[in-house]
Amino acid sequence: xxxxxxxxxxxxxxxxxxxxxxxxxxxxxxxxxxxxxxxxxxxxxxxxxxxxxxxxxxxxxxxxxxxxxxxxxxxxxxxxxxxxxxxxxxxxxxxxxxxxxxxxxxxxxxxxxxxxxxxxxxxxxxxxxxxxxxxxxxxxxxxxxxxxxxxxxxxxxxxxxxxxxxxxxxxxxxxxxxxxxxxxxxxxxxxxxxxxxxxxxxxxxxxxxxxxxxxxxxxxxxxxxxxxxxxxxxxxxxxxxxxxxxxxx
Length: 249
Prior knowledge:
It is built from ten helices and ten strands. The chain is of the alpha/beta class. The strands form two sheets. A six-stranded mixed sheet has the order 1-2-3-5-7-10, with helices on both faces. Strands 4-6-8-9 form a four-stranded mixed sheet. Strand 2, helix 1 and strand 3 form a beta-alpha-beta unit. Helix 1 runs parallel beside helix 2 and helix 3 runs parallel beside helix 4. It is globular. The two termini are 33 Å apart.
């Protein structure tokens, strides 16, 4: 059974976690399959945006506690987070159901995530005697310290709206509205220049950790490079001529 699937059309690659029998837990098979599909989507020059979603009512239940994994992994969970964070293409989380533990990390590692209002989210690791260690790297930059401390320590399963409130995810919608909401996000992303989107993602990920002087030097250089690019010339021409830029599928 394939643990994840990959489809691509009109510049959008959709990767679907597809092990509902195991609540899309992070088994070796699922992590390896996800790693392969993320790598393929990033390498595909026709792909502009990546969407990560799921079948059934659970996005990802976190670590696989079934004890069934016996094959040596080709990807670690850290590799998956690096692929999501380092992707030059925007990654949109279409979170159609509950996410716990490592599943919260997957959702938070997406650049923009939309979740259904009936879903529950939780850092449940402490309830089984461990801690949300690796996922803290992708979750903590998005959260207030007070919220992170409470949720990490309590292991409480919170409503999707609360997960948005604390900054883990971007938007909560009714289940019937999920496709329209994600389509709207993807449409906005496809309207942006490919190189510009890559640069914008880098700014959000890198500038906060920089010394202010270094940040101004780096961003001044980046701005000059972008304004001098063929992509910027096309974007400005499209604006002046009141037409759609050529990069829009």
